[in-house]
């Protein structure tokens, strides 16, 4: 399947390069504004103290924004290191970026360990045994492998539990063919529980204080944490995901005004028929749950037609959904419908759309399937 996806992507890129016009007009599509993406990264990076490294999180196809093309913009915007979830994604980054570290955030399967060497990736290590296995593999290859230590400071999932960290890190340091080039931890609820997050910060600092040396990258900030955890010693890197795509992880949507972030992604479709039902004028839109429009909208949910808000009504089907177009009486078949983005004087934010669909913004971004065209601006 992955091969097929890759071929599909390459074909699209090739078509774009050669200027071949797709004979199928777009029915439902997302627009990715790469100028904005690049500007967002540049602005975030510029807000960091001198010397702090920018770890650019590009997992899940750059949160659904088309990773290969996005990578070029991330590089221009100043990304220093790329972070992915797994080795397949690392291999995709390596097709485009050869001279930057690629950090694999999620645990690596035993069967995948050799691929770390093949793609020059940096694994995040969560146990002594894992580090030992990597050390042995590196020795067989006559190498020393750089690894990052993943600490669990309260997420309670993966990583070396902080209370055991001293001992485990000391043991890992004795292994001959791995070198700890970074220590990090993930904040479990930086967008919702600030007190808990502050405890995680203190726990992290106390472990790092004993083990960090000058060559190590020490990183804890995600997008939500950047709002209120100051980027100062011992931190010398931040990991940015959601924020670089122009979306505020906090529900109140405040706190990043200085960064002047702009949303990168728009999601659009078209009216395919108009009818009257129970005395109301309604339209059918050619995007259903197979296009990533989930069933189970709240009653506030609406789209834009002619810049005006129109409520989504009835059940979403596989290929279509229905809207009430009384606010847009001039609407015609073929007109553009905006689920996320700007149109005329109207705008629907990704945050609103996410709330109406009972999703978090991260989910919205990655839930728009391949059936929906990608227009890369
Ligand atoms: C996905 C991920 C991030 C990025 O998080 P955002 O909230 O999108 O900024 C950072 N660190 C780790 C370990 C992750 O898995």
Structure, explained:
- By secondary structure, the protein is an alpha/beta fold.
- The chain is 31% helix and 25% strand.
- It contains eleven helices and 18 strands.
- The radius of gyration is 23 Å and the shape is elongated.
- 42% of the residues are buried.
- Residues 57, 59, 105, 186, 222-224, 239-243, 249 line the site of pyridoxal-5'-phosphate.
Write the layout of secondary structure elements.
Layout: H1 2-18, E1 29-32, H2 34-47, E2 53-57, H3 59-64, H4 67-77, E3 81-84, H5 87-94, E4 102-104, H6 113-118, E5 121-125, H7 128-140, E6 145-152, E7 160-161, H8 165-173, E8 178-185, H9 194-211, E9 217-219, E10 237-240, E11 265-277, E12 280-285, E13 302-305, E14 308-313, E15 321-324, E16 336-343, E17 346-348, H10 350-356, H11 361-366, E18 373-376
Parallel strand pairs: 1-18, 2-3, 2-10, 3-4, 4-5, 5-6, 6-7, 6-8, 8-9
Antiparallel strand pairs: 1-11, 11-12, 11-16, 12-15, 13-14, 13-16, 14-15, 16-17
The structure holds pyridoxal-5'-phosphate (PLP).
In summary, what is this structure?
This protein is an alpha/beta fold.
> What is the terminal-to-terminal distance?
27 Å
Shape by Cα distribution: elongated
What structural class should be given to the helix and strand makeup?
A: alpha/beta
Tally of alpha and pi helices? 11
Uncertain residue ranges: 1-7
Helix content: 25-40%
Spatial extent as radius of gyration: 23 Å
Q: pLDDT average, as an integer?
A: 93
Strand content: 15-25%
User: How many β-strand stretches?
Assistant: 18
Bound molecules: pyridoxal-5'-phosphate
Main pleated sheet? 9 strands, parallel
| Element-level helix/strand string | HEHEHHEHEHEHEEHEHEEEEEEEEEHHE
């Amino acid at each position: 399947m992955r091969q097929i996806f890759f071929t599909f992507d390459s074909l699209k890129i090739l078509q774009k390069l050669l200027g071949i016009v797709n004979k199928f007009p777009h029915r439902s599509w997302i627009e990715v504004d790469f100028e904005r993406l690049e500007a967002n990264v540049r602005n975030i990076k510029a807000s960091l103290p001198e010397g702090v490294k920018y770890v650019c999180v590009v997992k899940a196809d750059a949160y659904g924004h088309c990773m290969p093309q996005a990578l070029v913009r991330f590089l221009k915007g100043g990304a220093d290191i790329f972070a992915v979830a797994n080795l397949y994604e690392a291999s995709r980054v390596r097709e485009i970026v050869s001279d930057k570290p690629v950090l694999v955030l999620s645990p690596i399967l035993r069967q995948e360990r050799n691929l770390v060497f093949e793609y020059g990736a940096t694994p995040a290590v969560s146990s002594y045994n894992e580090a030992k296995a990597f050390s042995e593999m590196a020795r067989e290859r006559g190498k020393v492998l750089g690894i990052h230590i993943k600490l669990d400071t309260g997420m309670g999932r993966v990583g070396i539990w902080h209370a055991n960290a001293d001992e485990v890190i000391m043991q890992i340091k004795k292994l001959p063919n791995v070198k700890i080039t970074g220590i990090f931890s993930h904040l479990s609820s930086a967008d919702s529980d600030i007190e808990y997050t502050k405890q995680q910060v203190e726990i992290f600092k106390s472990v790092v204080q004993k083990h960090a040396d000058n060559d190590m990258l020490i990183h804890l900030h995600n997008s939500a944490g950047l709002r209120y955890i100051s980027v100062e010693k011992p931190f010398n890197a931040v990991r940015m995901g959601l924020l670089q795509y122009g979306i505020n992880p906090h529900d109140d949507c405040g706190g990043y005004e200085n960064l002047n972030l702009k949303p990168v992604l728009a999601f659009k479709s078209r009216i395919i028929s108009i009818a009257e039902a129970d005395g109301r004028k309604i339209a059918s839109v050619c995007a259903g749950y197979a296009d990533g429009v989930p069933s189970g909208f709240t009653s506030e949910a609406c789209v834009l037609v002619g810049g005006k808000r129109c409520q989504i009504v009835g059940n979403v089907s596989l290929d279509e959904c229905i809207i009430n177009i009384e606010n847009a009486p001039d609407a015609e078949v073929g007109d553009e419908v905006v689920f996320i983005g700007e149109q005329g004087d109207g705008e629907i934010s990704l945050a609103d759309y996410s709330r109406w669909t009972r999703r978090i913004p991260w989910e919205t971004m990655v839930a728009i399937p391949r059936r929906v065209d990608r227009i890369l601006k």
